[in-house]
Design goal:
- The protein is an alpha+beta fold.
- Helix content is 20%, strand content 43%.
- The chain has a 19-stranded mixed sheet that branches.
């Protein structure tokens, strides 16, 4: 994979040629691939020697063409992390952070039990071993009732939820049962008008404590396959509602995914697995 840097890119003179290690993983899959059902959310992980221009990071993410790409830079004895979709930078991304932890703990530094990442907006996030799984430690987000949801929300979902709350620039629409979630056929053009807000729909599950789907067309994701960051608000909500601190979750996208969550004080633990699809190098050079 090669990306050319032209004069249209900010500060192109900073780059002559460089190679970036890149990993492609499926995160929170339904089961092992290819012998199992697969699924999960594709994520890219790229290791950099130093931070590149934001537009170049976005172009790399667009070239990867995955739900999100995590970029990591080693600063002293810790890693700084940023995430980009095909369109823009993300303030928080669960599955790409989990993928980064998997690469570090399962492949590059298997002697470690835990790895910490420093974010620009959400403090320190961690991934650690948890038996046969990995557990990601994220800050909980207290869901706030949305007294006057935008009219376009119901129009974009084609259905009226029982209640709506908001957190982390996401509208969370709660429905009565899993069937209602499965029937939603979102109008991406309408939901995109809510940007920078994304939309998450959730309900009690039939074979899980709760289920969800996640729509973020403004970020280039008409429907996210499996979403980690949404559980920063969903876990506090469902944990309180059904009086359980440990919950099994299913995401009902076409790919689907499984994870297990836990309410731990003011933190949310997301537990699951990942699988490596491929690893390689990305070459960037100046024309």
């Amino acid at each position: 994979m090669t990306i050319k840097v032209t004069n249209a890119c900010p500060n192109p003179g900073k780059i002559d040629s460089m190679r970036i290690p890149v990993f492609h993983l499926n995160v929170f899959p339904n089961g092992p691939f290819p012998d199992g059902p697969g699924g999960g959310n594709p994520a890219g992980v790229c290791f950099l020697d130093q931070w590149l221009d934001d537009e170049l990071l976005r172009r790399v993410a667009a070239e990867n063409n995955l739900s999100a790409t995590a970029f990591l830079v080693l600063a002293g004895n810790r890693y700084e992390i940023r995430w980009f979709s095909v369109r823009c930078e993300l303030q928080l991304c669960g599955h790409a952070t989990f993928a980064s932890g998997y690469v570090m703990l399962k492949m590059l530094q298997p002697e470690l039990d835990q790895i910490s990442f420093e974010t620009r907006w959400k403090g320190t996030v961690k991934v650690r071993r948890n038996g046969d799984l990995l557990a990601m430690d994220f800050p909980a987000a207290v869901p706030q009732p949305c007294q006057h949801p935008p009219v376009i929300l119901n129009e974009g979902l084609g259905a009226a939820p029982e209640t709506v709350f908001e957190a982390n620039s996401v509208y969370f629409a709660v429905f009565g049962d899993q069937g209602a979630i499965e029937k939603i056929r979102p109008n991406s053009a309408l939901l995109e008008k809510l940007h920078p807000y994304a939309v998450c729909v959730s309900a009690p599950g039939e074979a899980a404590d709760y289920v969800l789907r996640y729509f973020a067309p403004g970020y280039g994701l008409p429907e996210d396959p499996v979403t980690g960051s949404a559980h920063c608000a969903l876990v506090p909500y469902w944990s309180h509602r059904i009086s359980k601190t440990q919950l099994h979750v299913r995401q009902l996208s076409s790919r689907g995914g499984n994870l297990w969550t836990e309410m731990a004080g003011d933190r949310v633990l997301l537990k699951g697995n990942a699988e490596l699809v491929f690893r390689g190098e990305l070459e960037i050079y100046k024309e």
